[in-house]
Specification:
Chain A: One of its GO terms (molecular function) is oxidoreductase activity, acting on the CH-CH group of donors, iron-sulfur protein as acceptor. The structure holds two protein chains of two kinds. By secondary structure, chain A is an alpha/beta fold. Chain A has nine helices and 18 strands. In chain A, strands 1, 2, 8, 9, 10, 11, 17 and 18 form an eight-stranded mixed beta sheet that branches. In chain A, helix 1 runs parallel beside helix 3 and helix 6 runs antiparallel to helix 7. Chain B has a single domain, classed as Alpha-Beta Plaits (2-Layer Sandwich), CATH 3.30.70. Classes of the chains: A alpha/beta, B alpha+beta.
């Protein structure tokens, strides 16, 4: 580790590696730090991701593709089934990834682009000169170090501290977070579809999922809206769900995690600082998907970092270009998704059933998530009046 | 006053850290550290997916 870089990226998940790759390719001197000793592990993710989107960022490799899926099924509480295709499912499924390998492949991409990666190194604070952020304090394998940089990028995930240190309030209210548990269940029969189960007794304010991982395995998980959870609820509900749906399944891994579901936050930049990915709360509040948004935002951030450093201006004003770009794209999508999520979390099981039955006949494999939302609105304008502004 | 984390239960996912209004929690590799900014508001207790956080009020 040197004592000075152009860019320090905090966190080597998809967001951080994407920024690091982009900035390093632009010729910048980049340090990417990861507080864990292993990149990609432990996993905190359901691992579903949009195939075409992922391909824009990294060459597909069977080592990190656990399974490919044809589409998705959504189950209402009474069992009414809606089936939709993968191509049109928005940004969620297509691939079920092996994140442990995927995240490392992304970090390898950053390294081969010229970035330096250091693991077991945690940022503990920001160095400031007047108002400007000029580096980080860190704890690197037990040693306290200071590292300077022109720009610090926080890609430090759901538990992000970098933004808070810079005066950006990224604290999530319980209503703006999904608290999740997942088991990797082995020895079961699953086909090539991702399945989603809705219902207030199944997952209050969230959903349960079954994502095939190949060889008779699946990620089976549950997300509960924070404001409707209580102590340990996700694990308790998941155990019940697995017992019911996969009585013969064997649990060979346990995953815990949380997903920001706040929609766009007020700001993601400061003088000499940007936030990317889950730390910028860029995950989709409806589906919980965050990988592709993180990768896309990482490219935007890396590109803006490069042009700002070239112009020798890393002020908040100069970094506004990043803010503008991601709000125009990811921001618009997650703002819409937030409207849908905020409504869905208020529905009773009877209302879920009514909604699913109302479009059951017209729901086919050519529909995407947003088509379904629109079909639901057309069939139930009164119940879903809040969706009227989603239609252009 | 502070909450305590049962480290034998904790899955070190960081959910608690993200909701703490006082930034009193920190996820360090495989454990949670709590500093004295914690005012025992218990927001984290209900967020923890596995119920590893104990409230002193309980």
């Amino acid at each position: 580790m040197k004592d000075k870089y152009d860019v320090i990226v905090v966190g080597a998940g998809p967001a951080g590696s994407s920024v690091a790759t982009t900035a390093a390719k632009a010729g910048l001197d980049v340090l990417l730090i990861e507080k864990r000793q292993e990149i990609g592990d432990p996993v905190r993710c359901a691992e579903g991701a949009d195939k075409e989107g992922i391909k824009r960022h990294i060459k597909p490799d069977p080592r990190w593709i656990a399974a490919e899926v044809k589409g998705s099924r959504i189950f209402a509480p009474d069992g009414t089934k809606l089936q939709i295709s993968e191509e049109l499912f928005g940004a969620e499924v297509g691939y079920v990834l092996e994140r442990k390998i995927f995240d490392r492949a992304l970090a390898e991409q950053a390294v081969s682009s010229g970035a330096e990666v250091i693991v077991k190194t945690r940022a503990t604070g920001l160095i400031r000169k007047n108002k400007q952020i000029t580096g980080i304090h860190a704890c690197s394998i037990g040693e306290l170090v200071d590292v300077k940089a022109r720009i610090v990028v926080g890609a430090d995930g759901v538990e992000s501290k970098v933004g808070r240190w810079a005066g950006i309030d990224t604290t999530l209210a319980p209503k703006d977070i999904e608290t999740c548990a997942q088991f990797l269940v082995s020895g079961i029969e699953v086909d090539e579809y991702c399945q989603f189960y809705l219902g207030n007794n199944i997952a209050p304010g969230g959903y349960a999922w079954v994502f095939p991982k190949g060889r008779g395995m699946a990620n089976v998980g549950i997300g509960v809206l924070g404001s409707r959870s209580d102590k340990g609820m996700p694990v308790k509900l998941l155990s019940k769900f697995v017992k019911h749906h996969f009585p013969k399944g064997k649990i060979i891994e346990m995953v815990l995690g949380a997903v920001p579901a706040s929609g766009p936050i007020e700001k993601t930049i400061a003088d000499g600082l940007m936030l990317v990915g889950d730390s910028a709360r860029q995950s989709d509040p409806l589906t919980g998907g965050g990988i592709l948004n993180a990768l896309d935002a990482g490219v935007m951030a890396g590109t803006v970092v490069a042009s700002c450093i070239e112009k020798d201006d890393v002020s908040e004003k100069a970094l506004m270009e990043y803010e503008r770009q991601w709000r125009e794209t990811i921001g618009k999508k997650i703002r819409k998704a937030l409207v849908v999520k905020e409504k869905l979390v208020t529905l009773t099981d009877e209302q879920f059933n009514t909604l699913a039955q109302s479009i059951k006949g017209e729901c086919d494999s050519t529909m995407g998530v947003f088509d379904i939302v629109l079909a639901l609105f057309r069939a139930n304008p009164k119940l879903l009046w809040e969706f009227r502004n989603l239609i252009k | 006053m502070t909450v305590t984390v049962n480290r034998y239960k904790c899955g070190y996912c960081g959910a608690c850290v993200s909701v703490c209004p006082r930034a009193a929690l920190e996820l360090v590799e495989t454990w949670i550290e709590i500093n004295n900014a914690c005012n025992d508001c218990n927001t984290c207790v209900n967020i923890c997916p596995i119920g590893a956080i104990e409230s002193v009020k309980e």
